[in-house]
Amino acid sequence: MTEGATRHPETTSGRRGSDFAVLSREVGEQGLLRRRRGHYAVRIAVTLFLLLAAWTAFVLIGPSWWQMVTAAVLGLLFTQTAFIGHDAGHGQIAEGERANRAIGWIHGDLLVGLAYGWWVDKHDRHHAHPNHEGRDPDIAGAALAFSREQALLRRRGPGRWLARSQAWLFFPMLLLEAFHLHFASVAGVVRRTDLPLRTRMAEATLLAVHFCAYLAVVLATLTPLQALCFVLVNQGVFGLYMGCSFAPNHKGMPVVAEGTKTGFLRRQVLTSRNIRGGVVVDLLLGGLNYQIEHHLFPSMPRPNLRRVQPLVRAACARFGLEYHETGFFRSYAEVLRHLHRVGGPLRPELEY
């Protein structure tokens, strides 16, 4: 696999029962799938304390333009809170589904305004078929084009302009990502008729409490203009941080053509990108920098991903699979180069 690849070669591997079973057995023998309750108890407590401290500071500071700093800090903390909801959605935190769901509801719906149930459904489909056209919701119907075929479908209108310039617009667009996620969360709760009414009502109530409390506190503390700017800065930082945390995981990696069959191990490894950087990057990206390991073992607790990395790397070498890992800044360069290349056919001033 090369950095510039945009298509996954067709494979009909049936070796998941052999290749992946060997790796899975090694992981199980080392106890790397066991829950890390102490780790998550500390992480949740620290995150909640910081959120409480930030909101307390917000109230104490009062109507001041210094609140834009508070808005940015809260945007960062919202993303760290969402990371905990992500881990709960994969069953990484508690043994039981109900406990994980409760943690997800609190850290998703209540604290940051993202619908846990909608996200889990969407994210599970992504994990099953990452970067697979027609099957991965993360590359379907998005504002961005992830393959030349998708770009060529946008011959007219705003979609054409967006796709041809998407590399330049990528980071500015992320400033709107939080608003998009809030809207999609509400729509998801309303449309998920397959869920029990009680579950939908619970999530709808938590989302309503979040949005009402958020706006009430902001409007009661700041002037109208300050309140508007606070929301824009807060949600802009939240969306930018969230987008920058998830973008390097798969964007710019091979896209699997619709109808292609791939084995589990190849499908997960060859479409994922890891990011080097040590404990600072681990904290900054919520463990998503171990994307290959996370996709192979989604229920593995976040702190164990670093420990399983040598096993996964060795297995990839043993099975002849490219293990793509790059630096923090280079990962974004790869994403932007890919987006620019994909939009190439829509730039008539250039030849392709």
Automatic annotation (TrEMBL):
Pfam family, one: FA_desaturase
GO biological process: lipid biosynthetic process
Start and end residues of each Fatty acid desaturase domain: 63-326
Organism from which the protein derives: Nocardiopsis flavescens
Keywords of the record: Membrane, Transmembrane, Transmembrane helix
Xref: InterPro entries: FA_desaturase_dom, Fatty_acid_desaturase
GO cellular component: a single term: membrane
TM helices/strands, residue ranges: 40-58, 167-190
Protein name per Swiss-Prot or TrEMBL: Fatty acid desaturase
Domain of life: Bacteria
Keyword Membrane included in the entry's annotation: yes
An example molecular function term from Gene Ontology annotations: oxidoreductase activity, acting on paired donors, with oxidation of a pair of donors resulting in the reduction of molecular oxygen to two molecules of water
CDD domains linked: Delta6-FADS-like (cd03506)
